[in-house]
Design goal:
With 310 residues, this protein is of the alpha/beta class. It folds into two domains: 163 residues, P-loop containing nucleotide triphosphate hydrolases (Rossmann fold), CATH 3.40.50.300; 109 residues, K homology (KH) domain (GMP Synthetase, Chain A, domain 3, 2-Layer Sandwich), CATH 3.30.300.20. It contains nine helices and nine strands. A six-stranded mixed sheet has the order 2-3-1-4-5-6, with helices on both faces. Strand 5, helix 4 and strand 6 form a beta-alpha-beta unit. The longest helix has 18 residues. The C terminus is likely disordered.
Length: 310
């Protein structure tokens, strides 16, 4: 790449649930944007982040994990992940080191073959296996797809992150700066606040609850305090499917909800750089993951109604 060339484009990060896609994206742009947790299917929609340097600009597209859908929400998530492939100039397929390649991996490989675009295999979590075993894991995946490049990384420890950036830039065309140099994401503060609350709930709650929750921001207003500084007043509701789950989320004497809200408030304050007054409630909406109207109100539009723009 010539020094005077400015390259730009879109890089989709795809893979199965819980392989570290959001963690990788956060480390690639050097800032936490996408929420993370140890629980699968944390990411539900496409999230755009922007990496800008003198050589060019990469718009990373984080996607939900591709999985066997068991609800309308799951169908929406898979649809988002696969549709993102068509928007990308370069595709990063994120996997974990393993000798196993099952139906899920073969399905992703079949979808990649339809795209006819550069595909880079990013093998994450290499710090969890013996170094000598990594080459054989790579060969297992190479048998599934003729990758343009294979890069072993540890997203959590920022190992080989620069190699991923270099590999993407090498395959992008010359192009314009899509976003100004200060932009790191196109997500609104409202959507970021909702995701932060959901992340704290995912981290605090038991295994049986997380997949059945969503977060809706009821109101969000900025006002000036008597101390002449600004504060955000935010009201949010955690939506759950079952009455029994509502009790778990609230906790004894409201302890769990207070814990979630406190952690979320501190994280939103860090993101916004100012004080936050956060009130969080809990509401039961039975079977909301299969209710098209509720999904649409939460931003998870159906395939027929969703429009994607580049």
């Amino acid at each position: 790449m010539k020094k005077d060339e400015f390259r730009s484009g879109f890089a989709a990060i795809v893979g199965r649930p819980n392989v570290g896609k959001s963690t990788l994206m956060n480390h690639l742009v050097g800032q936490k944007i996408a929420i993370t947790s140890a629980k699968p299917q944390t990411t539900r929609s496409q999230i755009r982040t922007v990496y800008t340097c003198p050589e060019g600009q990469i718009i990373f597209l984080d996607t939900p994990g591709i999985h066997k859908a068991e609800s309308r929400l799951g169908e929406y998530m898979d649809d988002v992940a696969l549709e993102t492939l068509s928007q990308a100039d370069v595709i990063l397929w994120l996997v974990e080191p393993s000798n196993f390649s099952g139906a899920g991996e073969k399905y992703i490989a079949s979808q990649l073959k339809l795209q006819k675009k550069p595909v880079i295999l990013v093998m994450n979590k290499i710090d969890t296996v013996e170094k000598k075993d990594v080459p054989q894991y790579m060969e297992r995946y190479r048998a599934l797809y003729p990758f343009d490049e294979i890069i072993p990384v540890s997203a959590l420890r920022s190992v080989n992150i620069d190699s991923v950036l270099e590999a993407v830039f090498a395959r992008l065309p010359e192009g314009p700066m899509y976003y100004d140099e200060e932009t790191v994401t196109d997500q609104t503060m409202r959507s970021l606040a909702a995701e932060i609350i959901r992340e704290k709930a995912l981290r605090c709650l038991k295994e049986e609850v997380p997949h059945g929750i969503a977060v809706e921001i009821l109101s969000m207003k900025e006002r000036e305090r008597k101390t002449n500084d600004m504060i955000w007043d935010i009201e949010a509701v955690i939506i759950t499917e079952k009455d029994s789950h509502k009790g778990i989320i609230i906790g004894k004497g409201g302890s769990m909800l207070k814990r979630i809200a406190t952690q979320a408030r501190l994280a939103i304050e860090e993101m916004a750089g100012q004080h936050v007054n956060l009130k969080v409630f809990v509401k039961v909406r039975k079977d909301w993951r299969d209710n098209v109207g509720i999904l649409k109100s939460l931003g998870y539009e159906t395939k027929q109604g969703r429009k994607t723009t580049r």
